[in-house]
Amino acid sequence: MRSKLLRIMKAYTLITIAAAIAFTAALSSCNAPATLQYQQGSGTQSGQAGQADRDARAAVVEDFKGTVGALSNNVEMAAFQGMALVREDSLSTGNESWASLEMTPERFALVGESSEVMVTSLIDGTAENTVFYMDRGTLWVGVKDRLSPGETITVQTPTAALSVRGTAFSVAAGGGVTEINVFSGEVEIRTQDMSGEPLFDGDGVQVDISLTAGQSVIITVSGGIVIGVVVSERASVNAPQDVREKLNALMPGTFSASSGGGGDERLTEIIDSGAGFSASDLEGTRWRVIRGDWLTPELRFMSGGSVEFHDLEDEPNTLEARGTYTVSDNLLFLPSDWGDGSGVTIVDNQFTWLFTADGEMLLTFEKVN
Q1: Which of 44-48, 197-201, 260-264, 265-269 has the highest mean pLDDT?
Q2: Could you read off the pLDDT of 92-109 as tens digits, one per residue?
Q3: Rounded to whole angstroms, how far apart are CA atoms 307 and 286?
Q4: Is 279-367 assigned to CATH 2.40.128?
């Protein structure tokens, strides 16, 4: 996967960075270890050599946990603290693993578990333009102050490109779905694939979205068509405790669940998810978590509008709770005392729901029968 991603990205790096610069212009405008030392102007860093390396370097591995691999100059190796990532280097993380990257003392990114990310950086005069290509996984990005004029940070997933200014946000991608949560500042989003080609909805329109602090969006693409864009007035961290602690150390008090100006209610979907469905379509089906902090829940939709919440970790699959569900205007409404009481959209037999009965967790369910 990493070598495949590298081959794809090499062909489009300059095109995508140029597009990101133009996109940003059109739309407007760390506790680092002691061994990581920057000298303004010369670009020197302990363990690095000279201006040439400064121009090529995209980021430095500030810290990591678990299994983190790197692909540098087509050579696979284990990542290490203080490792410099240059243009088109990539990182991959295993289960329960993460890596924090420092672009400058005021710019950082944290790669979550089971992720594949390539980073590239170009110096254009006095401005630095950084692009993260993420084929799968989760990425948190923090910018502690506004970017300099002409400076850009872009995150590209298989379904969307994010252009940021002074902000903090997270991106999760996989299976044709991209989820973005904004914790401070602004993020501009445009639907396009990894090569920079636009992705359109059923009406032939490329989707542009602007999110501010406390908002989130889930973008779903199937068959190269944008079939779902659901904006929520709630941003959720959805990260393991050790990642939350690291994020708080990097940018204290920023990465936490928050609501936008509209409160906690989920907004109406921007794009119709397709054919309608009714409560009877769910009867007898089971749904399991495929992404989230808690992976063992299962929802079982019974007859008469009843739904059961089971925990597969327990034997014999303990019934945790029973409630009622309804379907209205193509939205599924689960019991409000379990979690977010507003409607969720089912796309390609998947839906994402904010569970709040035992902590706050954003869970993505998939139909299993």
Answers
A1: 197-201
A2: 999 999 999 998 888 899
A3: 10
A4: yes
